[in-house]
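Predict structure. Chain length: 755.
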Amino acid sequence: MAGPQSDRIVGTSPPRKEGRDKVTGRARYIDDLRFPSMLFGATVRSSIPRGKIKKINFGQGIAWSEYVVVSAKDIPGRNHIALIENDQPCLADSAVNHPEEAILLLAHPERRALPKAVAAVSIEYEPMPALFTIEESERGDQIIWGKDNVFKKYTIEKGDVDGVWAKADYIIEGEYFTGAQEQLYIETNGVIAAFDAEKGITIWGSLQCPYYVHKAMMALLGLPEDKVRVVQAETGGAFGGKEEYPSMLAGHAALLAMKSGQPVKMIYDRGEDMAATTKRHPSRTRHRTAVSRDGKILGGEVDLVMDGGAYVTLSPVVLSRATIHAGGPYHWPSMRVRAKAVATNLPPHGAFRGFGAPQSLFAIERQMDKIARELNLSPVEIRRRNFLKPGQTTITEQEIREPINLSGLMDRALDLAEYDAKKKRFANENPKRTRKKGMGFAAFLHGAGFTGSGERYLASVVGVEGRADGGVRVLVSSTEFGQGTNTVLCQIAAEALGLPYEDVTIAQPDTTNVPNSGPTVASRTAMVVGKLVASAALGLKQTLVGAGMLGERCTVDEFRAACRQYVAAHGEFRSLAKYDSPEGIFWDDAKYRGEAYAAFAWAVYVAEVTVDLATYSAAVDDFVALQEIGRVMNPVLARGQILGGVAQGIGFALYEKVEWRDGRMANSQMTNYIMPTSSDLPPIRAYFEELGNKHGAFGAKGIGELPMDGPAPAIVNAVEDALGVPFNGVPLMPERIFDAIAEPAEESRPPAGAR
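Prediction complete.
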């Protein structure tokens, strides 16, 4: 055991740490947990989008004395969910700002008694005018938040944008839209809260970010840090939907538990989970691009607007990532991006895999195809002439220092997809068919880790613990919800120490036992947290060497013996590592300029589609996903991330449409919110390239969000190739295809078969 041995564990696919418990049924999800004298909780919600609460009536026929009832007046701390702006109340008091806003909480020993009781509560309102779209919010006829309905604004300025228009041979404008999308995790939101006057509050939950909940409970309940404990139960999927929202549900259960003196479980059914919780932000993006006659981008302007819903939640940071990704993987000598998130009276939008990047990357990739069409160039050639190259800078003036070859990446992806041959064949065959076929692709990038100064602000801490049995345990608040956190972090610790994978375990995230390693978001776990795990693991070994219990070169048995000896002599044996900004990574928050991310992952995705003119529906027949991700830490998990992300991206592109009626999700069930099933998905062929990354554990970059970014633009580009009709938004439903064919836009198309 001389030290890390490359490819010994990292780069292989050992069994998942939690896999056996999941497949044998031993894993305990939140609804599997039971406590003595436990009550069940439910929520009484607003039935209108905006108005003043005049009176609450408790109907006849309900034994109200059997129920615990909580209102805003029962909150012992501050009535808000602590996050960024702290504007969202835990319980509405005098007014409501969106449908499904929580007003009252009920608890009862019998879960089945609650629906009737909730229905028996009637609320009298004084309705107020509401806003439901970005355009209504921008008009400002009604001000529902702040002075102008704007939650947050960002501006990026690079070069001389005002000077490029006179030099341009072409000025090309486009407007693009993306809709809301439901995370649709398998397990709905759920928590259990228990209160003890001496010990404080304990929360068990299906969640991503234990310390988010911890912070929120301190403020809401008026409790000190040591009186709040948050434990992650086994979690059945999240996709961002359990990043901030569990703080709301935990607060509700905690208030009921404090008032009743009994544990309280709250589990949403599917309808409530879909109607009341956060979604992907809808967006509108306008591009204006100056291009030379030879197809080189001279500069551009982007106006990006996101619908944040009724409260701020995470809109500023979602908007931030969308803003920084607005230029895509292209070189812009000059660029101005103006971005804002606005308030409407929809339920608040929040985190979803991709976190703003899918919206702005959809727009730029559709714009690039439009530029190609206007210049009579192929989609391939317009990208080749404008790809970022090493030494050039992004729109935030971050220099590309790694040897990325985007033209080479694109060529490989197109060859894997047989793009040239298929495009030519389809162009010849389509005139004879009612089922038109097309090819499209998208090139994109995704920054790993928190944006800008985010990681420096988080100052994450991880621990690695030597155990009395000679094994090692990883201590992080980073959570497992199906993506492989437990497995990959254990691989990293084992690799760093030269131990067998089986010798390393990982602690259940519990704020009384693990340090705050930051939220499990932003494609940061393997890269940022993993790097800290490796450092903490080496610190463990250095302690043993410094104590004279171990040599620099040792066997596995010698390490185990030294670990047992140290614990026997000194008790608890932990090594901690804290995040420190890498040298040369600096972000200017005031100017919104600099190194936005320590590393980017890069990708080119290619879609083959069929559009059936009998049903006006589009389907994906084949999909190639090629990405450069630094280092493939675990091939099975990496491939799973890509396949799952592409599947969600296909849903975003073609199937998943939230129907809003007066601010309420009208299709809040799986019978009418349509997501792609396995029979709707094509073969998804995932391929990887590895350039390494000095800022990530053993070369890792982020991978979790990347595959969400590329499918929608690749698919819509392919549909346009099949039909010769441009489309500017997703989801691309059959009715939109029908309307576009019935009234085709007056826009030219690249020559059939052009590459």
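Summary: The first strand starts at residue 39 and ends at 45.
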